[in-house]
Design goal:
Elements: E1 3-19, E2 25-42, E3 47-51, H1 55-66, H2 74-88, H3 94-112, H4 116-120, E4 126-133, H5 146-159, E5 163-167, H6 179-193, E6 198-202, H7 209-221, E7 226-228, H8 236-243, E8 249-251, H9 259-268, E9 275-277, H10 279-282, H11 285-298, E10 302-304, H12 309-316, E11 325-330, E12 355-357, H13 370-375
Parallel strand pairs: 4-5, 4-11, 5-6, 6-7, 7-8, 9-10
Antiparallel strand pairs: 1-2, 2-3, 4-12
The structure holds ligand LLH and magnesium ion (MG).
Ligand LLH binds at residues 24, 132, 135, 167, 202, 254, 305-306, 326.
Length: 378
Amino acid sequence: MKITDIEVQPFKYVSNVVRDTEGHGHPGPEHDVTGTLITIVTDEGAKGYGFGINPDVVENVIKPAVAGEDPFYRERIWQRLKEWQRLHLGVLSDRIVGVIDLALWDLAGRYLGQPVYRLLGGYRDTIPAYASTMCGDELPGGLDTPESYANYAEECVKKGYKAFKLHTWMPPIRWAPDPKMDVAACRAVRERVGPDVDLMVDCFHYYSREQALYLGRELEKLGFRWIEEPMDEHSISSYVWLSGQLDIAVVGPETSEGKMHTRAEWIVRNASDISRGGVFDVGGITPLMKIVHLCESFGVACEIHSPGAGNLHVLAAMGIPGEYYERGLLHPFIDYDKPAPYLKEIIDPLDGDGNVHVPQKPGLGIEIDFDYIRANAV
Ligand code: LLH
Ligand code: MG
């Protein structure tokens, strides 16, 4: 089998998530967004799908690297794209490599009539989820006060969630960041949901060592499960310093570049207690499984970053603790259960016990609404 083409179909849809000046998402007015559907096409009719690469990147970088390849040679294709990144990182991010890698896994699953997690080697088909909030805001009744976080946490627990993660306030909010406000929100949530719900925090990502230590020690008193990315992840020494002093688990790295190499360095330096990564942080399912096996070799748990089909299949194929699926980002004003207009259904419905179930359809199991995309083609 050979890859004969990679098609890109731009299309319009309406979104009500807006980005603030620092790039964080919040609820906002409806507006048009342009997306792209990526289709890997082969000479035998097998296809794999993904979203979100611009046509010029596909034309100038992806096609030269993968055209004519056997789509089942995922490792060779991934290694080649990684090599292309050395000189073309400006256009070929790990996110883009991840889209191609996921589309190749999707193609393999569709062709073989198997869900991706079974091709990876299945371990479980049900994964507990945590409710992961958007970053704090100043929307009345949204995520604007410690009490609002507590109200929302209570609502999530009523829906079945057994765990809740706060993304707290960050710039451009005038008074943020503020570790004391983070503690106030965490305390309000703990008091509201009681001792049996796992709680985590993902705060401003550029606190100083002292601010992060203060926050960590307060969270220990509140019985939090973990603290995530409180400092710039490029400073591994800062994380060694922090982890060495805290009892609460430090999770990371999440956004740091370097794929499995970075995770290996963090593990050998004891920079965190639990490792982290998601398919779009590290360049796909192929490298994320390497990270999972790396963690397993060192007896380190790995918490997977972000929702989505690729991460769900990896979680279902992990034989080591990667305890939770990150379901979000959630907000009281956003209906997460409503599928994006170009999808027929969401990938990760929540059951009443706070679990998500890995899709059993061939491939990644994303139900694409091809009619919608055709009707809204740009
Ligand atoms: O800063 C943000 O917007 C969030 O932290 C975001 O990156 C989110 O994906 C995350 O970190 N989840 O764990
Ligand atoms: Mg995070």
